[in-house]
Amino acid sequence: MESEAGFPEHLKLAERELERARRQESSLRRQLEQAVKTGRFWEDLAGSLQREHFAHALFALRRDLAFLRDLEVTDGAPTQGLRLLQRQLQQQARSSVVNVARDFPARVRECGIRIDSMSRHPHYTFNQGFLRVEIDERNVTARVVPRDGNEIVVGLDLDLVVATLCSERARIFDRKTDAQSFLRSLFTAYAAVLRTEKRSEGDAVPLRRVANRLAKNLNRFAMDEFNVDLSRLVQRGDTLVDGKRLHLNHTRDRRLGMLLNGLESGGYVGFISFKNERKGPE
Q1: 249 phi, psi to nearest 5 deg
Q2: How would DSSP label each residue in the chain?
Q3: What is the pLDDT of residue 126?
Q4: What are phi and psi of 151, to 5 degrees?
Q5: For the chain, which ranges sit under pLDDT 50?
Q6: pTM over 0.85
Q7: How far is CA 11 from the centre of its chain?
Q8: Are the CB atoms for 110 and 97 separated by under 8 Å?
């Protein structure tokens, strides 16, 4: 008779079943991920075709070629029909961007967006170079790239490119922000870096290190938005918190520094500190 404390056979059974359940869970998770990715692909493709964004539909097909080949093996997806669609989209997309050098600037200006004076097709910049749009007529795509942000690649459908530019521009520049709240959050992140690195109060630390620490404190964070918020704070001049004044120092290392929006002439900011405000003689 098995002891009450033992149950060795039952333990082996439980361990085997646990391992089997975990393998099944892992398999189902992979199937779910595959199904979600497949659904997103068809949703993106269908939406592009419905809106007559033929260049973006072509971009989606090219982007997911490896995925589609795997899909054909596993699910028997109609990739032969997709290859025919790709050839048709190539013809349609190329014919629709013949006049892109003329039409893109006009469409942007119609939306009330000013193009930087130094822009030349196919390279366009906006807001003193903070936003870039790179037109690639050969691949029928466009890249919308915010400074310190993540680039977005879309098919070269002019209304889609302009809408993406407008959306990114609004996200970055049209937000309502509380300058004092941002300043205090920045100071809190700076103080946390000092503690973590066992530095002295008032030490200058890399700006990007503080920005990364700030990102951990917030539910939502974007480095390009941080750039603009910090620039606005500096230009306002209201940089005193708890008796300590914000200081920014420059760097020649572009990889470590930040070129603040509207303050480009000052060069790259690389270091940040908060130091006690000096009081003059009474």
Answers
A1: -115, 150
A2: ---TTT-HHHHHHHHHHHHHHHHHHHHHHHHHHHHHHHHHHHHHHHHHHHTT-HHHHHHHHHHTHHHHHHHHHHH---HHHHHHHHHHHHHHHHHHTTTHHHHHHHHHHHTTPPPPTT-BTTEEEETTTTEEEEEETTTTEEEEEETTS--EEEES-HHHHHHHHHHHHHHHHS----HHHHHHHHHHHHHHHHHHTTPPTT--EEHHHHHHHHHHHSSS--HHHHHHHHHHHHHHT--EETTEEEEEEE-S-TTT-B--TT-GGG--EEEEEEEEPPPPP-
A3: 97
A4: -75, 150
A5: 1-2, 280-282
A6: no
A7: 49
A8: no
Angle between helices 65-75 and 8-50 (to 10 degrees): 120
Strands 244-250 and 240-241: antiparallel
Count the Cβ atoms, other than its own, within 10 Å of residue 172.
Answer: 22
**The pLDDT value given to residue 95:** 87
Yes or no: say if 161 and 144 are a contact pair by the CB < 8 Å rule.
yes
| Whole-number Å distance between alpha carbons of 3 and 23 | 31
Q: What is the CA radius of gyration of the chain?
A: 27
Extract the tokens encoding 107.
């469409």
Residues near 144 by beta carbon (within 8 Å), at least 6 away in sequence: 131, 132, 133, 151, 152, 153, 154, 161, 164, 165, 168
Residue 128 in tokens = 């003193």
Instruction: Round to whole Å and give the CA distance between 264 and 257.
Output: 12
